[in-house]
Amino acid sequence: TSIVSQSRCFPVTILTLPILFSISSNLFKSSSASNSDDLISLGYEIVATSGTANYLEQINVPLQRVYKINEARPTIVDLLKNGEITMIFNAPSGKVAFEDSQIISKIALSNNIPVITTVSAIQVLVKALAALKNQALEVRSLQEYLSFNLCEMRN
């Protein structure tokens, strides 16, 4: 849960609205399938652009398709500006995907929407969200976590 507790700037809606998946690299799409399954079991909805949506639909992951920036409407930009996305998992690959990623990141930043851009961070965050769903966050001191007295170390 540390990644979630460290990110108190995340909006409260982090636990309720859909999450955008946009994973460009075929190398990382298999891990996105596992992560999306975990998120769906936690009650999240998945929104995906065409390439990721095609892959996830082939393995029967329920999702809502959304258009890329220069396609028909509504685009991902529309959903972001309307506050319809909780978080973005975006691991771009290639020039066009990277350029779109920069636009999405700017809009997300101006709308306080967290953007996760590496597959390893996505995996950690999914685990943290699962832990958060099962237990409330607690605030404790470092000493409480480590369960020892610093004065004892000096002797």
Structure description:
With 155 residues, this protein is an alpha/beta fold. It contains 8 helices and 5 strands, in the order H-E-H-E-H-E-H-E-H-E-H-H-H. A 5-stranded parallel sheet has the order 3-2-1-4-5. Strand 1 (19-23), helix 2 (26-41) and strand 2 (46-48) form a beta-alpha-beta unit. The chain is globular, with a radius of gyration of 18 Å.
Uncertain stretches: 1-13
What's the shape?
A: globular
The count of β-strands is 5
- The helix content, as a percent range, equals 40-55%
Question: What is the terminal separation in angstroms?
Answer: 34 Å
What secondary-structure arrangement, pairings included, does this model have?
Elements lengths: L1 H4 L13 E5 L2 H16 L4 E3 L1 H9 L5 E2 L10 H6 L5 E5 L3 H16 L4 E2 L2 H16 L7 H5 L3 H5 L1
Parallel strand pairs: 1-2, 1-4, 2-3, 4-5
Supply the key terms.
155 residues, single chain, alpha/beta, disordered N terminus, 5-stranded parallel sheet, 8 helices, globular
In short:
By secondary structure, the protein is an alpha/beta fold. The protein contains eight helices and five strands; from the N terminus they run H-E-H-E-H-E-H-E-H-E-H-H-H.
